[in-house]
Amino acid sequence: xxxxxxKAERKNAKLRLxxxxxxxxxxxxxxxxxxxxxxxxxxxxxxxxSSAELYDDVVEFEHANIQPPxxxxxxxxxxxxxxxxxxxxxxxxxxxxxxxxxxGCLEIVDxxxxxxFKGNSWGAWSQATPRHRKFIDAMLQSSVxxxxxxxxxxxxxxxxxxxGKKKVEKVGMKAEQRDGIEYEFTTVLDITHGDNFAIAxxxxxxxxxxxxxxxxxxxxx
Length: 221
Prior knowledge:
Elements: E1 16-21, H1 27-38, E2 42-46, E3 62-65, H2 72-84, E4 89-93, H3 96-100, H4 105-114, H5 121-140, E5 145-162, E6 165-175, E7 187-191, E8 197-203, E9 212-213, H6 216-220
Parallel strand pairs: 1-5, 1-7, 2-3, 2-4, 4-5
Antiparallel strand pairs: 5-6, 7-8, 8-9
Helix pairs in contact: 2-5, 4-5
């Protein structure tokens, strides 16, 4: 097989964007606004009991309600369906379910450990990890832009409210997905609870040097 090179063009790269944050941070709406700004047909694969449809008055999109078990294969199926249907952007809301949801990777390992592998979790991971990897590969190789949301474990911190007073704020912590998941994306934005500001923890676009509130303009730029 021959190998051919051609001049690289930024416009040929498809977006792989992750939005992480605690419940109520605005991940779903943020993903939809970014997709609207990018333009084209939008699809949402929704694991959150059709909650994305609450925003049909803000953004026009097509919707699929994904039911448990949340196996890696079910997410792969959603990606391939979006490609086949000719969508420009697919939102996976959320991929936390593929990891820690009902029928997700952690449950797959627990079940295999207690049955097939008789308590040997290492053996169980030898089957679960390739299935998870196929899901990641399906995202990376997809012909459409992909935006995913991930839940973060919530914590509270005391911050300075001025005048010598303190206030308690909810903050997101580590995203609920496999360790290292952030390396798979072009950009990872952590969304703060309350003011809904996006802070880049990884950014290969060069667009998120400063925190910003997500809007349609985010997708346009």
